[in-house]
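Teaching assistant's notes for section 4

Start the section by putting this record on the projector. Ask students to predict, before seeing the second block, whether Transcriptional regulator will look compact or extended. Collect guesses on the board.
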Amino acid sequence: MRADRLLSILLLLQVHQRITAKELASRLEVSERTIHRDMEALSSSGIPVVADRGTGGGWRLLEEYRTRLNGLNENEVEVLFMGLPERVLRDLGLQKASEGAQLKLFTALPTMYKQRAEYARQRLYIDSASWRNTEEATPALARIQEAVWQDRKLSFSYRRADGTYVERVADPLGLVVKGSVWYLVVAIDDSVRTYRISRIKEAQVLDEASQRPPDFDLASYWKQSLVDFKAALPRYYVTVYADEYALARLNQSPYVHRIEQMERLDGEGRVKLVIRFDVEMEAHDFLISFGSHIEIIEPDTLREHILQTARNLLSFYERKTSVSVPLDDEQVDQGQR
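Reveal the predicted structure now:
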């Protein structure tokens, strides 16, 4: 622990040029007395640490004692300091390690590049969380990560979409985080499969070493699996007429990326759209919310489905309004006269 602290002190001195014992003690969560002992240890090992007395004083390194990191251009420096999203690092238990690595890298940069690193850090922040805060619980992630990092076989229970559980023993190949969702890529029975980690229970790291296909590349596999997944999705196309209000709403919804065709109808103030959905029920539930602002042209089955839903709603509310409503005080008074 002390060796880590001494290194941290050295790096902080290189970053800040001058820093007080009180500030160091606060950052490293030790006493000022401990900091003074650490400074003596650094000095004894030949590192030129100097204490400046008085206002504005503190500990500093002699100017000639600096490390340098050469061979990086400005763009490469900026990319290095953009970093991974905090949530990904937190889930993997690497947030502290990332902070330490950033500090060490920053101190090793030539002075001219330190400004570019800080420039990038102040102008880009990656937030991987969704607006709806739908982060999934992944209690098995730490154990799975251990198996992946140590190249050990993994046994686990997996909950299928229907709620049933299956038992698996697999060779873990890698972890993928997409948005806020973690996935485990494994090899089972000479095939590569993907499992959603939030559905994994009772993961156990086995003593047996895992087997990794020699030509396997995680990034290439994931990119191809996305292509295959999208290609296998069902497709349900709907042709509609939409007014300006409906078009504005569509442009602000996720379905704007599913508009396959758009044709403006001259003189009518409407547009003809072809929208892609997965299934009819999805199209029904979304399009009915537009009311009369969207007219469904085809398919006829969807048009009839929405018409029937509208009739059912009308009948429902007509029955509700036919039930006697309690009179207010004024109506009661008028009835008594």
